[in-house]
Amino acid sequence: MQKISMDKQYKTRGGESVRVLCVDMKNTVYPVAAVLTRTNANTHEEYEAIEAFNAEGLWLVNEESQNDLIEVKPFVFTPEVGRKYKNNQGVVETILLTNCVGNYKVATTYKNNNGEDLLHTLTIDGEVVPGGGCIFVEEVKG
Hints:
Blueprint: E1 10-12, E2 17-22, E3 32-39, E4 46-53, E5 69-71, E6 84-87, E7 92-97, E8 106-111, E9 117-122, E10 127-129, E11 132-140
Antiparallel strand pairs: 1-5, 2-3, 3-4, 6-7, 6-11, 7-8, 8-9, 10-11
């Protein structure tokens, strides 16, 4: 298993945001300190908590946990017909065309809440509105 590094991004296995503070804390078992962004189950408000991890990002030394740190790999949008992507609103879209005319070069289709097929046109970077709005965040396999 790889050691946690200050120059990489991480999240918890459970999906919480993580900000690594240091990897050299004076603690032989848990030398990594990180801030986790959590959500209060009752109020649904976000708060931050500092947790300690071993050098490989494990919260518990001998077992897997939802608090373990996992590296976040950079997302690369590859506009290719048939590929599926999830946007930042949780909607999965399928690439239909990649050679549209104008500023919006990519066309996708997706289903709305009523099950109807709808069409989006996007920039080549995967944005519906450049600089804001909906943007693809991960590829969906299968």
